[in-house]
């Protein structure tokens, strides 16, 4: 079975009308009048982002969901995606079908479709890349650069899901659900669009990502970890070793949204979060100057590394 047969069998059934049945050289997409297009891309490499030999539905879902998290942080609505796949030459077609099943599951859950891409065979590890396309009302996109001194810092949900899911540390945090199937916070896009001055998703590690936002916005930031919410199982795990807090602040893979907003909007943000039955925590404040200070019980924490970095 050659690449065109593979595309026809496994991927063409996932194509939306923009993808022209995956029989053309490019996809066609016209955003609605008054809307901007928002684009994001992530790559996942075998044995770096997922265990070697695991090519199935879980990896496909993770690939799309981590990209969807970027769109969520911008306040965008997802529409479709382009997909690039480099399969190891000896991969079994059963894995391809399973991978396609994972794409289909995410397509249905998040109302997106495949618009095109490329499929190749290589002598090496599998490499999967997705480019997600979203839209949002014109001029409302939220970047990392809009925070100002005096703005509040918020975190959606809670940290530690990625670490607990990957390590299988509790029954509540089932590995397949919380590492391979992170939940992009798309339901919060109205909050992001309406009140956020800057935003970023927590992927590389909380300490790293708040530093990225503060640096891009040219502000300093103070984070009080005593204000962070932890589920009971994570709270108990943290209580057994004071050094464990640093692990959860730097591990990443949580795919929550970290955002800033003017303090005048505190009540509105909390009311909107309560309406959605979702936890949004006020955890810090932006200030003048540079740098990020993360405290626990009033004392600043020190980090050997704030998050994951390639080429290091």
As an assembly, this protein is single chain
SSE order in H/E notation? HEHEHEEEHHHEHEHHEHEEE
Q: How many domains in all?
A: 2
Q: Radius of gyration, rounded?
A: 20 Å
Shape, per Cα inertia axes: globular
Largest sheet: 7 strands, mixed
If you average the pLDDT, what whole number results?
92
What topology, given as strand order, has the largest sheet? 6-8-5-9-7-10-11
CATH class of the largest domain: Alpha Beta
What's the CATH architecture name of the largest domain? Alpha-Beta Complex
| Unreliable stretches | none
Q: Helix count?
A: 10
The computed structural class is alpha+beta
How large a portion of the residues is in β-strands, by DSSP E? 25-35%
CATH fold assignment of the largest domain:
Phosphoribosyl-aminoimidazole Synthetase, Chain A, domain 2
> How many individual β-strands?
11
**Helical coverage, percent range:** 25-40%
Give the termini separation.
39 Å
SSE blueprint:
Blueprint lengths: L2 H9 L23 E11 L11 H18 L2 E12 L4 H18 L2 E10 L4 E11 L14 E5 L4 H7 L7 H4 L10 H7 L2 E4 L4 H12 L2 E5 L7 H8 L4 H7 L6 E5 L4 H10 L4 E8 L4 E5 L2 E2 L12
Parallel strand pairs: 2-3, 7-10
Antiparallel strand pairs: 1-4, 2-4, 5-8, 5-9, 6-8, 7-9, 10-11
Helix pairs in contact: 2-3
Provide a compact summary of the structure:
The protein has 312 residues and is of the alpha+beta class. Helices cover 32% and strands 25% of the residues. The chain starts with a helix and ends in a 12-residue tail after the last strand.
């Amino acid at each position: 079975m050659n690449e065109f047969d593979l595309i026809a069998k496994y991927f063409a059934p996932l194509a939306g009308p923009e993808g022209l049945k995956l029989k053309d050289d490019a996809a066609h997409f016209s955003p609605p009048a008054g809307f901007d297009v928002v684009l994001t891309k992530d790559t996942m490499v075998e044995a770096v982002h997922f265990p070697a030999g695991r090519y199935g539905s879980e990896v496909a879902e993770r690939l799309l969901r981590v990209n969807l998290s970027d769109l969520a942080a911008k306040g965008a609505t997802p529409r479709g995606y382009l997909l690039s796949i480099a399969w190891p030459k000896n991969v079994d077609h059963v894995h391809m079908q399973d991978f396609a099943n994972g794409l289909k599951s995410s397509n249905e859950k998040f109302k997106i479709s495949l618009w095109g891409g490329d499929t190749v065979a290589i002598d090496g590890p599998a490499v999967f890349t997705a480019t997600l396309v979203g839209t949002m009302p014109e001029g409302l996109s939220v970047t990392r650069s809009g925070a100002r001194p005096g703005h509040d810092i918020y975190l959606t949900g809670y940290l530690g899901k990625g670490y607990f899911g990957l390590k299988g540390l509790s029954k509540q945090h089932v590995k397949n659900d919380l590492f391979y199937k992170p939940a992009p916070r798309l339901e919060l896009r109205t909050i992001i669009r309406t009140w956020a001055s800057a935003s970023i998703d927590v992927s590389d590690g909380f300490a790293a990502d708040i530093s990225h936002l503060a640096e891009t916005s040219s502000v300093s930031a103070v984070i009080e970890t005593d204000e962070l919410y932890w589920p009971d199982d994570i709270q108990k795990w943290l209580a057994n070793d004071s050094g464990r807090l640093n692990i959860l602040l730097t591990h990443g893979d949580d795919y929550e949204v970290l955002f800033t907003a003017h303090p005048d909007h505190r009540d509105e943000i909390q009311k909107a979060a309560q309406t959605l039955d979702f936890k949004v925590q006020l955890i810090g404040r932006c200030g003048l100057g540079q740098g990020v200070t993360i405290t626990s019980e009033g004392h600043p924490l020190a980090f050997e590394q704030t998050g994951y970095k390639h080429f290091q």
